[in-house]
Design brief:
By secondary structure, the protein is mainly β. It has a single domain, classed as Immunoglobulin-like. It has one helix and seven strands. Strands 1-4-5-6-7-3-2 form a seven-stranded antiparallel sheet, with no helix packed on it. Strand 4 and strand 5 form a beta hairpin. The longest helix is centred in the C-terminal third of the chain and has 14 residues. The radius of gyration is 17 Å and the shape is globular.
Length: 98
């Protein structure tokens, strides 16, 4: 589960074939992975891939392309900044404890 740094282009595409294989471009970094979950940093934000029996087929560090095989259950983009929520929370606490 080591981090893998990739050079990526500015394009981000995802191609899924029969929920058995997935190709992702625009990958900047693989944060963590195991046979059920991949966390990827892409040029469009963090992407969480969940499934079963997942494994890397192809890794192109120069282009930022990753191919993964296994049963794909879900893809989720994660919010990378909660600045709005933090501002609201800090504002509320600041007002309460004045």
């Amino acid at each position: 589960m080591d981090k893998v740094e990739l050079e990526s282009s500015h394009n981000h595409n995802i191609s899924i074939s029969d929920r058995k294989s997935i190709s992702i471009s625009g990958v900047k970094k693989i944060e963590s992975f195991d046979n059920e979950e991949f966390l990827l940093e892409t040029v469009m934000g963090y992407l969480l891939l969940k499934g079963m029996e997942l494994e890397i087929l192809k890794l192109d560090t120069y282009q930022g392309n990753v191919s993964i095989k296994g049963h794909v259950d879900s893809l989720i983009y994660l919010e990378t900044s909660n600045k709005k929520n933090k501002t609201k929370e800090e504002g509320l606490f600041t007002r309460l404890f004045k």
